[in-house]
Structure formats: structure tokens, C-alpha cells
Amino acid sequence: MPIHATLRILALAVLSAALPHGGKCEARLPGVLSSHMVLQRERPIHLWGWSAPGEKISVTLHGVSRTTAGDTLGSWSVFLPPEAAGGPYQLTVTGGNQIVLEDVLIGDVWLASGQSNMEMPLKGFAGAPLKDSAEEIAHAGQPQMRLLHIPKKAADFPLANSAAAWTVCTPETAADFSAVAYFFGRELAARERVPIGLIDATWGGTVAEAWMSLQAIAADAALMPVFATRAQMMRQQAETGAILAREKREDLAARQAGQAPPNHPWRPDPASWAPAALFNGMVAPQTAYTIKGVIWYQGESNSRLAFAPMYAKIFPALIADWRAQWHQGNFPFLFVQISNFTSNATEAWAIIREAQRRSLSVANTAMVVTADIGDPDNVHPADKQTVGARLALAARALAYGESVEYSGPLFRQATSEGDGVRVWFDHAASGLVAKGGALAGFEIAGDDGRFVTAAARIDGQTVLVGNPRVAEPKYVRYGWANAPVVNLYNSDGLPASPFTSEDAIFVP
User: Would you say residue 446 lies in a domain?
Assistant: First the structure.
């Protein structure tokens, strides 16, 4: 066979392997572009896909058409002009074949991501029921809400597509969808009166660095310890087979003795913890899809003592990375501070909460505090309604420009006053309230950094904190525990965030 013919066959084989859904040379769309989808209103509408190289492609939506052609690798991309909220419309893509998408709405699209507390569906988890689950599912018919559930997938490189398709929000589809995202979207759909599209890209028990691009991690030398963490995990994997075999023997012995099997420690899926693995498999395929913003709930898996301080670098870098990947500027990034859970001495949840609070220095971000609605005995609190409602409140302020208070008191500064400390807060203009009795959860320390419990009282928009044992207090902190007992709110009913006034975040 002539060499040029061989090369042509090889080139076609490479192109065929590169095309999503196989090698057929006809117009194709990614999973995120499907019937029932919501396209982002008031922004240029991006549509893309694959075809034969050079194939002419025509796209029509709501009476507007644009044409393009597949490039040398068979990729094509067009932008339609912005549209106001509305629909349903029909979208057609015509090449050598024709694709017709029905029931397309124009509204607001929000991406929900993180680990299990964002993943937790309306039907709840085994051993972790959702509050009023059956009733919520029964009333989950929301025709103006559309759901896109991204399947779990870890990958070594950024994927161009994911096996997902939009669905109408019904009791059947909502039951397996993120409860936090559902309650958030339901609130926005009712208040803003526009269609809401929700993308659920979640995986329980995962670390933040798995959700970042490898490019972003490699660009910052301060993030290199995430690779050391990965190396340590993979070394431990060599022993996993023997450990699992031992646990099976223990389970069998218990059953033969008529006893309940022993509880074995949870182990993460190694693939889901690899740096960038979940970004590649679950986020990258959606980055060409225009969104309104992101809601995020994650951090529990980064709380190990040796690694928790890294979260103060990882989380802001993740926000910057996603904004860079979407090429939409500083879209709203709303996140949930991890709740209160007893856990054990090997984890430092307070450090993660503090890293999250300090990440509010990143532009156009907001944080929902959940220390008051958690469950110290269950890592998956049942009340996801309040979480969704508080996220929606933040969205109303940041994304929709409403003049509403969306945050509880946030630490601003601490000043010495006599033998005590006065603590100043932002988001306290309405006044401060101690729910259920005297203020709890405050500690102070001197230069030695040894914190002791302190008495605290509200004075206007500030809190006075002191303890006679600390003559010259220098630092103050609040809610500094895995499962803190805290009760400070503003008069708008929103809880104060735990904090420390220390410059650095130390392991307790």
C-alpha cells in the first residue's frame, strides 16, 4: 500500500477516535446540549459540536440562524445573540443530518458541585435521612426547573463530553438529584420567575484538589503538597487488598457467630482523589456551557490535621481556576461552610471553616454558615432546605442585585479594651442576638496562644469577650471545634461564622 494511503487511513482512524459518540461523520452535540435544557439568558448563546471536517453546519433557535463549518478535526462552534427569559423553543442543527432539540428554555443556569452534602439527593442517603423527604419528593413537580445530572467519572485528561442529558424536574427525576441544589433552584424559580437550569456535578467523599484543573495546580508551587498527599494514598493502596481480605474474614466470622458485622473505616475511591481527576471527567465537559454561577459544598474530606491548612490556598485557587476555565469573568461563586460534626482528633474542621471564611476575600463570593443546623452525630445533616434557602438569599444579593441581608455576622477585627477584647463584625447593622441564652463559643488567648473559654456579651454591633485568667488578651476565636456550640446571630436571623483572629491558621 502506498505510504500516502497508509497515512490517510491512520489520520481517519485518529479523527474517528477523537470524535465523541464514535467516528460517524455527521453533526453531533455534547450531552449538555439536549432537549429540555435551559440556556443562559442575556448572554451570547454558545452552541458547539462535531461533524465531518469542512461540513457546513446551520443552527437555528427562536428565528435566529447562524452557520459555520467543522474544522480540520471536526469541531464546530457558533454563538447566537443573547435572548431574554422565555420558551419553550425548538433548536435545530443541520449538517448532512438534522438534529432537533425540543422544549428548550431560556433562563438562568447554576452549576452545583462538591462532595456528599451537595450530592445528597432528595431521597436521602442510607443512614442519613433528608428532612421531610417523602413530602418534598411528592411536590417536586417544577416544570420551570430543568435538571442535568453529570455521571461520576474520573479521568486523566479533560474530556470533551459527558454521558448526560437534561430532564424536566419531576418527583421521579428530583428524587435522585442534589437536594441542596433543588431547594436553591426552587427558591430562585419562585422569586425570579424565570426558568432555572441546575447542573449536578458531585461526588461524595472527594477532596477539592480533584475538582481543580491540573494546569491550575501546577501553576502554583504552593499547591505542590497535593501531589505528596496523592503519593501517600497510592502507597497505602498496596496494602488495601490485604486489608479488604481481612475485613471480609471478620465479617464472615461475625455472621457465623450470629453477630452483626463490625464497622470498618470508610475508604475513598483512589481514582476520585487524584488531582484534577474530577475536573477532567465531570467539570471540563461543561465549561463551554454558559452559566449564571456556581454553588459549592465541600471541605470535609480536606480536614485531616496534616493537610487542613492547605485548604486556605486550594479553595481560592479552585474558584479562580473555574472562572478562568469558563471565560465568563468573576461569576458568582456561592459556597457552604462545612457544618458541625464530632468527627475525631485526626480532623480539624475548624481550620477548614476558617479557610472558607477567609476565602470571602475573593471577589463576588458569598458563604452560607451551617453550624447551627448541623448534626454532631451525622456528617450528613438532614436539613438541606435551610442550606438551599440561604444559598438562594446570597444569590438574590450577589447575582440578582436585591438589597437583602444575605450573611450572618462575619469577623472584621478585634481590639483590646481593658482586660478584654471587643470583636467587630460585618453584616451586623441590624444588631446582634444570642439565641437560647448567654453567648457561647468564645475563647481568648494571650501571646502564648493558649486559648481558654471566655465570657461574652453583646454590646450594640460588637461583642465584648474576657476571662480574668488572661490579663492581656491578644487573640479571640469563636466556634473553634469540630462540633462547636454557638448561638450568635444578627437580627436578620442569620448565624455568625466561626473565626479566629490569629494571622495564621494553626492546627489546634
Answer: yes
pLDDT over 90 at 237, yes or no: no
For residue 352, being part of any structural domain is answered with no
What confidence score (pLDDT) does residue 21 get?
Answer: 45
Burial 416-443 (b: 16+ CB within 10 A, else e): eeeebbbbebebbeeebbbeeeebbbbb
Global pTM reads 0.93
Q: Is residue 93 part of a domain?
A: no
Report the DSSP beta bridge partners of residue 67.
Answer: 58
Residue-wise pLDDT for 431-442, tens only, equals 999 999 999 999
In which domain, by residue range, is 495 found?
410-500
Over residues 364-372, mean pLDDT: 98
Q: What are phi and psi of 419, to 5 degrees?
A: -100, 20
Overall number of domains in the chain: 1
Give domain status of residue 438, yes or no.
yes
Q: What is the mean pLDDT of residues 70-81?
A: 97
Distance CA 387, CA 187 (A): 11
**C-alpha span between 450 and 437 (Å, rounded):** 26
Query: What is the pairing mode between strands 293-297 and 98-114?
Result: parallel
Per DSSP, the three-state class of 151 is coil
Q: How many CB atoms lie within 10 A of CB 56?
A: 15
Other residues' Cβ atoms within 10 Å of the Cβ of residue 84: 9
